[in-house]
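Notes from the 1:1 (GR / supervisor)

We went over the backlog. Supervisor wanted to see one worked example end to end before approving the batch request, so GR pasted a single chain during the call. The sequence is below; no edits were made to it. Supervisor asked that the structure be written out right there so they could see what the output format looks like.
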Amino acid sequence: MKFGVSTFLWKSPFTSHSFDLVHKIKGMGFDIIEVAVEQQELIDWVRLKELIKETGLQATVSGAFGAERDISSEDPRIRAQGLKYITDCIKIAEHLGSPIFGGPVYSAVGKTRFITEEQKKEKEAGALKIWLKLVK
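Structure output shown during the call:
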């Protein structure tokens, strides 16, 4: 069994200035660092990968899904932003050697609403289309 911890526990957003956490997490006995990608441009991904390798940690990647990245939004612009963000996070996960990209990918955090059965089928079809774009 391996144990991991998210950078969310200490920093939000996690940035290049937060890289001391990599050593702290290793020093605390964790095996995995879950990197929360809130603002990808604030992180030097090449250096982070080096630090993770130096410490012997494994990496996983989690997304941070607010209203502007909600792929279930009625607004096509927001859905497109969400899809781009997911695609970027998958590339980041690949770069870090992460076998996992997680988080509430399906919607903005905390979003709840009741929908009809017909709306549910439409959403499922739309989600399938998005998924097929991602795996191409």
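Supervisor's comment: The beta strands are 4-6, 32-37, 58-63, 101-102.
Batch request approved.
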